[in-house]
Amino acid sequence: MQNKQQQNSPQPALQLQQNAAMHRDICFMMLPLLAMAVYLYGLRPALLCLVAVVTANLCDRMVAVVRRRPYQKDEMSSEAFALLMAMLMPASVDYRVLVTAVLVAVLVGKEAFGGYGSYPFHPAAVGYAVAAVSWPEQIFRYPQPFSPLPLGSAEEAALVDSIDHALRAGGVPATPDLNLLLGNCAGPMGVTAALVIVACSLYLLAQKRITPTAPLCFLGAAALVAFCFPRLGSIPPSLPWQYAGERLSLLKYEMLSGGMLYTAVFLINEPVTLPKTGRGRAVYGLLLGVCAMMFRYYGSYETGVCFALLAVNSVSGWLDRAVRWPAKREGGAAE
Length: 335
Hints:
1% strand; mainly alpha; 63% helix; 335 residues; two-stranded antiparallel ribbon; globular; 16 helices
C-alpha cells in the first residue's frame, strides 16, 4: 500500500522520506546520551542498546517475510523506538524486560496498526508502558552514578530511588544544580543529562527535524501547573506569588526529572502521531503538559509522561480537525 501511495502522489513519498530522516537523526542523537550512560555506569548501557536495536531489526525483517514485502533497510523507525525505550530505562534493567518492551513496541505499537506511518500511539510509549506496568521493580529503581555494572545480570547491584520519588513523597531533593544538568543523579540512563538533551534539541532544530511549538507548549503548561500547584507539603494553599522561592526551587526538580525534557525533545515530536497544523500542535502540547503533571501527581508510576503521551495520542487527529473549524467559521484559511 505504501508503494502505491508513493507512485500515485509525490507528497506522501516526500513525507515518508522526511519521517525516515527524522528517525535516523533520532538514532544518531541517542549516541551522546549513550556515551554519558557508559561514562556513568560502564559498558552495560551500550550492550542494552545493542540488544534493543538488534531485536527491533529482527522484528522488522520477520514482519517483512510474513507480509511478503521487501525489507526497507532505510526505514529505521523501529531501531529509533528501541533506542528511545532503552534510554528511558535504568542501566540495571534485565535484558528480558527490554527485549519484551521492544517486541511490544514494534509488533503491537507499530505493526499491529498497519506498520510505518499508520500507528496512532507512539510505539516507544506503548512498549515502555507495558514494561512499567509489568515490571515496576525493574523500571523504577536505579543504580547510583559512577557505579559500574556487570555486563550480565545486575540483580546484585545496589539500587536507589529517583528524584521523582522524593517529589511524590512531598519533599525537596538535595541534588545540586550541576548534578541535575550533567546527569549525575539516579534515574533512567538517558534521561538525566539535561545539558546533553538540550544540545540534541538544538541539532534537531537546526536540521528542521522538529518544531518548537509542541515542546514549548508542553513544557510551559507543565511548568505552570508545577508552579501554581506545587506538591510540597510545606507550601500551604496560597496565591501563586506567595512562597515564590520555594515554588521555583521545586519547579527545577519537576522539570528536570521524570523524563520531561526527554519527552519534549524526542517523544512529543514523533512525526506520525504529532498533529499536522500549528494550532493543533500548540493545543497538543498544552494538553500533554497538563495531562503529564496529573499523571505525575496522581498516577501510580513515576515516569507518568509516557502514559500521558498515550492518552493525548488518542485525540491527536481530532485536534487537527477541531482547530480548523473556528477558522472556517470565520472565513479564514486553516493552518
